[in-house]
Amino acid sequence: MLISEDRIEFTLNGRPILFYGWRHGDLGGLRDYDWLDVEGKRVLDVGASIGDSAIFFALRGAREVVAFEPYPFYYGLAVKNVEANGLSNVKVINAGISGSDGTVRVTRGETTMGVELKPSEEPDAAKVPVYSLDRVLEEHGSFDIMKMDCEGCEYDAILKSEIISELKQIQLEYHYGPERLVEALRNAGFKVEATRPRRVYDQLLSDPDMRVGYIYAERARALR
Predict the structure, then answer these.
(1) Separation between Cα atoms, residue 66 and residue 140, nearest integer Å
(2) CA distance linking residue 95 with residue 224, whole number of Å
(3) What pLDDT was estimated at residue 175?
(4) Helix, coil or strand: residue 104
(5) What is 33-91 written as a DSSP string?
(6) What are the φ/ψ torsions at residue 198 (nearest 5 degrees)?
(7) Which residues fall within 8 angstroms of residue 125, CB to CB, at 6 or more apart?
(8) pLDDT at 113
(9) Which of 7, 5, 1, 3 shows the shortest CA–CA distance to 80?
(10) CA angle 83, 133, 65 (to 5 degrees)
């Protein structure tokens, strides 16, 4: 393994991998997504950051990955990393996901890790689109699998979705408790499990008191 300030090189699944901006990602947490059966599947990655999870899915055999990242700084790194690793089956889109369509002006610079999608008053703030989850599923689908880690957007995105049942498998990180999401996914026909929430306090967030964990959802066999 070779490490420098701005890049890291290592071997993953027998292939040499290069990541720029590696300190802004979560390379150590990629194995958290081993539960997802991505081989041969189309994967939607919501909250792509530097592209680490999208690249991980591609290297595990995903047929195609479509990844969304709203912050231009991280979107740029994600595109650079996809290109550096020669992955033609990963597409990165500079947009956010929510319960409805819109736009938001965000900083072009770095943010702290795990920050919510926050409007910026900076003079050179970038205007980026925000899409409803249903619009993404309709315009970019069909998808088999969704990974979602979007620092709170999961509630609006999932609770307002009318076609989330088109997905077969979902793994998402919840940030303010699992209850509403578990209920919505079960009502949509998924078998759902949630990890026990852990308390996290982040004074940089609009709601700093978080209850964080993972939700694993899979379509019941009879509904596949």
Answers:
(1) 8
(2) 30
(3) 93
(4) strand
(5) GTTS--TT-EEEEES-TTSHHHHHHHHTT-SEEEEE---HHHHHHHHHHHHHTT-TTEE
(6) -115, 145
(7) 105, 106, 107, 108, 119
(8) 57
(9) 7
(10) 25
Residue 137 tokens, joined = 């599923």
pLDDT at position 115: 67
Tokens 């970038």 sit on residue: 126
pTM > 0.70: yes
At 221, list the tokens.
Answer: 């066999």
CATH number belonging to the domain at 31-223, selected among 3.40.50.300, 3.30.70.1350, 3.40.50.150, 3.10.450.50: 3.40.50.150
- Domain boundaries defined on the chain: 31-223
pLDDT of residue 114: 59
As given in the structure block, the two tokens for residue 74 are 């991280």
Consecutive 10-residue averages of pLDDT for the chain (224 residues):
87 89 86 95 97 96 97 96 97 97 94 74 95 98 95 94 97 96 97 94 76 93 43
Cis peptide, bond prior to residue 142, ω within 30 of zero: yes
**Beta bridge mates, 151:** none
Best CA proximity match to 156, nearest among 134, 186, 187, 138 = 134
Stated length of the chain: 224
Distance CA 184, CA 164 (A): 10
Would you call 193 helix, strand, or coil by DSSP? strand
